[in-house]
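Hello again, I could really use a second opinion on something today. For a while now I've been wondering how a particular protein folds. Please have a think about how the structure follows from the sequence. Here's the protein in full, and shout if anything looks odd to you:

***
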Amino acid sequence: MINYPPTLGLILAGGLARRMGGGDKAMLEIAGVTILDRVLACLAPQTVGLVINANGDPARFADTGLPVVADSVPDFAGPLAGILAGLDYAAQEAPGIEWVASVPGDCPFLPEDLVERLHAARRQGGTPLACARSGDWRHPVAGIWPLALRDNLRRAVVDEGLRKIEVWTARHGIGLAEWPDTPVDPFFNVNTPEDAVAAERIALQHQGL
């Protein structure tokens, strides 16, 4: 039983993947399944709908059947711009939805209770925002975002030129949803070719992932 408000899922796939030599990290296959397909399979049951944030030709995601929204802020302004694009989409295309849950498009092992625990963390902390933490590391892109802060975020990104997520979230207060990072870090992300090899090994060793 879902005990949190209807929430739109946002996959952030708008980065440049410089450490991978370019391209779409989300399209890399891990144990025969693309990271994107893994993310979608995990997030879809937790949300009322999904949208992909990506720049460039949206046709490369056509097989998903999902809407693709580009940053409205130019020059690859980072994940805050992607989150703003997701909030704008929710405001325009998903009436009645007041929350967006974002995840990076390069994490193949995301938890199946992510959205529930993000909402629980913000409620318990009395904060409008929450993000994930595994072990000693925060994952600010794996977070919950209220549409109520959309205009504030726009001012920060557009007028102030703010690019660091944690600077903005600190202004409003953010709860932390905790996960262990062993035996597998659910927020392991694939940034380099070496990470892709490691993810393949993890997937083969832990068949349930």
Notes: Residues 79-93 form the longest helix (15 residues). Residues 7-205 form a domain with the Spore Coat Polysaccharide Biosynthesis Protein SpsA; Chain A fold (CATH 3.90.550.10). The two ends are 22 Å apart (CA to CA).
